[in-house]
Design brief:
single chain, 151 residues, alpha/beta, Rossmann fold, 4-stranded parallel sheet, 5 helices, hydrolase, protein phosphatase, protein-tyrosine-phosphatase, protein tyrosine phosphatase activity
Length: 151
């Protein structure tokens, strides 16, 4: 089984959205038992619920929102996961600072799996409107599809 961790700052919108998308796309391909997805935040306050706007967008597009609450990245995550995918460069830098040097090859940007987009980052929609969450969902879909194609 391949274990993939998706990481943003607070683990209340981008990374849980990406996790829900990747999990559901993998299941649709019949690969749900081969791939495990989870999410965490580099600066998460554990126990927060998924942002209501993220939940609404996921439901609108027929994705099952994650039931788990936010959690902070742990040192054990670098050992447990085969891939650790950040939503943006700030979070990737935070991962690389915390990650043992020998394991840094596991850390990448999610959108590195969607090079045709011409973007490297999934922007943080938290302080914006619903349109920002819709955009994030589309980027998560593109990154997840590319990831699944490579795995």
């Amino acid at each position: 089984m391949t274990h993939v961790l998706l990481v943003c700052k607070a683990n209340v919108c981008r990374s849980p959205m990406a996790c829900a998308v990747a999990r559901q796309l993998a299941q649709a391909q019949g690969r749900g038992t081969q791939l495990h997805f989870d999410s965490a935040g580099t600066h998460a306050h554990s126990g927060k619920r998924l942002d209501a706007r993220a939940k609404d967008v996921l439901l609108k597009h027929r994705y099952t929102p994650p039931k788990s609450r936010s959690r902070a990245l742990t040192a054990q995550d670098f050992e447990r996961f085969d891939l650790i995918l950040a939503m943006d460069q700030d979070n990737l830098s935070a991962l690389q600072r915390q990650c043992p040097v020998s394991l840094r090859g596991k850390c990448r940007l999610l959108l590195s799996y969607a090079p045709d987009l011409g973007l490297s980052e999934v922007p943080d929609p938290y302080y914006g409107d619903l349109a920002g969450f819709e955009r994030v969902l589309g980027l998560c879909e593109a990154g997840a599809r590319g990831l699944l194609a490579e795995l």
